Amino acid sequence: MERLSAPVKKHYSREGLYETILQRLQEQGIDKITRKDIAAVDEFHVRGAEVSFELASAAGFDQHTKLLDVGCGIGGPCRMLADKYGCKVTGIDITDEFIRTAQLLSELLNLQHLSTFIQGDALHLPFEDNSFDVVWTQHVQMNIENKNTFYSEIHRVLKAGGRFIYYDIFKNNNDPLHFPVPWANDVSLSFLFTKEDLGKKLSGLGFTKIETKDQTNEAINFFSKLFDKIAKEGAPKVGLYLIMGEGTPVKMGNLLKNIMEGKLELESGMYEKN
Which end of the chain is less crowded, N or C, counting CB atoms within 10 A of the terminal residue's CB? Predict the structure, then answer.
């Protein structure tokens, strides 16, 4: 990851992200900000907050759960888990501006006592062995070439009997993708593998599968509704374009096109550390 860390950080970095989010909300006359007000921007993955809550509900979290979100972005899932379940959550992300924004948003929403955010590398997690009950990651591994180290680090920091939960995008074949997509402007930052590859890797590391779910059709439905809504109402004042920039419609459109052509599929899953 070392040779890729700078390009990945550059791809995601947006200066003054927190201030921009606040400005957009104030322009709408929103002064007392809630998690709902920022939901369209603070979960940078297909289906957003809906799928995060779906995963959390299936896992059965409570106030005793100590969770790590690897590739936490600006912290939306962490804040949801802290708010709804009282979990102690830690988020780590390579992008400095994401971490700064995550910290400030948690303070704004009075969730800083349950959420901690750290700038760091997913291939060198700065935590002791057996530190967490759950490790969670959504739409992160696509930028990571060294899959073995990525998942080995997740296994290392999990307690025995702890659970690994993921929601990710996988390649379905070796056909070239339409670029740009949300995680990469070209093939140089995109490192996709199949969901079968993931299953083999996790089993080899000492994980036991609890469940997996094909999320592809749900993703297609999500995009169809989203694009219809934007066509009728315009883009939201606070949305993922604040992170992805002016090319957001093209990136999202290409992602859907790749899915519809059978090049990509989505899956969520839960594994237990032996």
Answer: C
Contacts of residues 222-226 at CB distance under 8 Å and 24 or more positions apart, as own/partner, are 222/46, 222/47, 222/50, 223/46, 223/252, 223/255, 223/256, 223/259, 226/252
Please write the tens of the pLDDT for every residue from 12-49: 988 999 999 999 999 999 989 999 999 989 999 999 99
Tens of pLDDT, residues 173-225: 999 999 999 999 999 999 999 999 999 999 999 999 999 999 999 999 999 99
Among 111, 109, 76, 113, residue whose Cα is nearest residue 91: 76
Beta-carbon contacts of residue 148 (< 8 Å; ≥ 6 apart)? 201
The whole model's pTM is what?
0.95
Beta pairing, strands 132-138 & 264-273: unpaired
- Let me know: does 179 contact 192? Beta carbons within 8 Å: no
Q: Phi and psi of 29, rounded to 5°?
A: 80, 20
What is the dihedral angle through the alpha carbons of 218, 219, 221, 225, rounded to the nearest 10 degrees?
A: 130
Band the pLDDT of 1: cuts 50, 70, 90: very low
